[in-house]
């Protein structure tokens, strides 16, 4: 109850107060901030994927603005020779308003990345978006086989079936490329696993499927048991180090992240930035109220 109360009241707290917690997990408000932090990570031997904060929009004019912002981001990151790629949320480009317009907007972004021989990751959002996002991914994968990937969420009961059904896109020209994460949205028990052990079991089941079918996984976790489980599967299938990567969020579990890098594995850090950091922070807390106690500790420890 305490965590839920804090989650409900956080949006009404002063932004400066919330920033004390948020600044650890967000690169900043501007492209320059994201470039600066990405360079630091590159210098430490890590790749990045950059994400402009913002999700649910009210009209398609906003979707156009977001598309143009991403085109600027790509040109800026490429001119600064950042070792990284780009993550996009379809709702940011109009998915819930007009699926075709959303597709065209994301296609423009993928085409821009392809000009630089780079890559765009389509984020997976809550369950009403999943089928739409898979459809968009399929269309883009057909046109840009080496330049687009998708996120899948282990806590959804449908995920292994989705992975199986999408194997028709796997070919010798370009492997399928997924970021595998646990999933953060609040979903009904009918469609999502709820228990920690159960989610972890299915995460490793999905990863096992990817590795034995030569799919390139971005192993996105901060959970040491899952990292250890991934090590075992990598050893089991004798997977070369250029056939997978680990992924983590900016500012989260830096010690575990360093240990993975020190072992010689590829690490990619998800670098969010933008003026919508407050909305991002409050939404994440609503989706995961257990973070509330951590925020309270951060406010006191860092204040």
TrEMBL record:
Gene3D superfamilies: 3.20.20.220. The keyword Secreted does not apply. Pathway: Amino-acid degradation; L-proline degradation into L-glutamate; L-glutamate from L-proline: step 1/2. It holds the Pfam family Pro_dh. It is an enzyme of class 1 (oxidoreductase). Its cofactor is FAD. Its EC number is 1.5.5.2. It catalyses: L-proline + a quinone = (S)-1-pyrroline-5-carboxylate + a quinol + H(+). Residues 35-293 form the Proline dehydrogenase domain. This is proline dehydrogenase. It comes from Marinifilum caeruleilacunae.
């Amino acid at each position: 109850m305490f965590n839920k109360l804090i989650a409900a009241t956080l949006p009404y707290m002063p932004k400066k107060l919330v920033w004390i917690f948020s600044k650890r997990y967000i690169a900043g408000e501007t492209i320059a901030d994201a470039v600066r932090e990405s360079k630091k990570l590159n210098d430490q031997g890590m790749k990045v994927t950059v994400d402009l904060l913002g999700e649910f929009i009210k009209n398609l004019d906003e979707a156009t603005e977001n598309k143009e912002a991403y085109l600027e981001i790509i040109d800026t990151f490429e001119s600064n020779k950042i070792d990284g790629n780009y993550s996009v949320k379809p709702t940011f480009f109009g998915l819930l308003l007009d699926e075709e317009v959303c597709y065209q907007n994301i296609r423009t972004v993928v085409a821009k990345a392809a000009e630089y021989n780079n890559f765009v990751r389509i984020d997976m959002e809550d369950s009403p978006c999943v089928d739409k996002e898979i459809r968009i991914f399929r269309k883009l994968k057909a046109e840009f086989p080496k330049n687009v990937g998708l996120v899948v969420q282990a806590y959804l009961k449908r995920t292994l079936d989705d992975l199986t059904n999408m194997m028709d896109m796997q070919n010798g020209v370009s492997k399928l490329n997924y970021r595998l994460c646990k999933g953060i949205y609040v979903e009904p028990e009918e469609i999502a696993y709820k228990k920690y052990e159960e989610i972890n079991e299915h995460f490793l089941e999905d990863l096992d499927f990817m590795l034995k079918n030569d799919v390139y996984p971005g192993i996105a976790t901060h959970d040491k048991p899952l990292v250890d489980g991934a090590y075992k599967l990598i050893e089991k299938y004798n997977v070369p180090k250029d056939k997978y990567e680990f992924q983590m969020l900016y500012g989260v579990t830096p010690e575990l992240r360093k240990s993975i890098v020190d072992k010689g594995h590829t690490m990619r850090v998800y670098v969010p930035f933008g003026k919508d950091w407050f909305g991002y922070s409050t939404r994440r807390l609503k989706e995961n109220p257990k973070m509330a106690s951590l925020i309270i500790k951060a406010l006191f420890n860092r204040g």
